[in-house]
Amino acid sequence: MFDRDSRYAGKPIKTLIDENGREISYVSRRLIPQDGRVIAEVRVQDGDRLDLIAERAYGDPRASWRIKDANPDAEPESLDDTPRARLKLTQVEAE
User: Fold this and answer.
1) How confident is the model at residue 2 (pLDDT cuts 50, 70, 90)?
2) Are the C-beta atoms of residues 44 and 83 closer than 8 Å to each other?
3) CB 3.0 to 4.6 Å from 40: which of 31, 45, 89, 94, for a disulfide?
4) Cα(28)–Cα(15) distance, integer angstroms
5) β-strand 13-17 against 23-27: which pairing, if any?
6) Residues 45-55: b if buried by 16+ CB within 10 A, e if exposed
7) Sequential DSSP letters for 7-56
8) Residue 52 phi/psi, 5° resolution?
């Protein structure tokens, strides 16, 4: 259902039956890992966006969610707003 690189890959799919008998499928809640897997930091450059940072760090612009997970105290919309700010990076799980 999801690309293997998606943050939702491998998460359980649940089904709800509404009052009209319709089946509604949804992904089980995804909890942000809290196990200290931060492996590096990067500095935001002028003109950076999270997808560009993710491409440099992980080789995949869609992996910006990993940066958001590693920086839970920051507002996601402002992670790339401040040049020279430091962002934490998490380890990519082995398959």
Assistant:
1) confident
2) yes
3) 89
4) 10
5) antiparallel
6) eeebebeebbe
7) TTTTPPEEEEE-TTS-EEEEEPPPPPP-S--EEEEEEPPTT--HHHHHHH
8) -70, -40
